[in-house]
What does this fold into?
Amino acid sequence: MQIHQVRDRTVAGAAALLLGATMLALQGCSLDPTPAPVVNGPSETNIELVITATPDLLNADGVSKSFINAVVREGSTGNALPNRLVYFVVDGGGPLSSSFVITDGSGNAGTFVTAPTDPSGNGFGQVVVSARTVDNDFNQQIFRSVSIELRSPGP
It folds into this structure.
């Protein structure tokens, strides 16, 4: 008699387990639309920084210059952010006219970069100028960059 009771309990337990697994599997399959997630914002920094170079092609003669402009805006509204300190750094080029510039009323901060000379004579290269705002935490900052192509001055 005990064997039949054990077998009946085992069959009942297996059936319950199978039914539970089926219900769990079917719960993930649905054709109902998923509700949109709740969006919280804006981001913590909420600053947009756009950097450009004019011109973006220079002779590698040690004299040619490109104007680097950084525009700082509020990310959610697009409003200009005046009186913000912008830090510029150059890689592969000559000096900057200024590394630290304060934005004007339109959110613009500009500096000039001078092209290096081309000691290799191969006629190709680039200068990369990066900028970021100077706020209260370096870890929250993201550099934005612009590249300038270098060419040999040629005859």
In short: The longest strand covers residues 65-74. The mean pLDDT is 81. Residues 47-151 form a domain with the Immunoglobulin-like fold (CATH 2.60.40.10). The helical segments are 2-27.
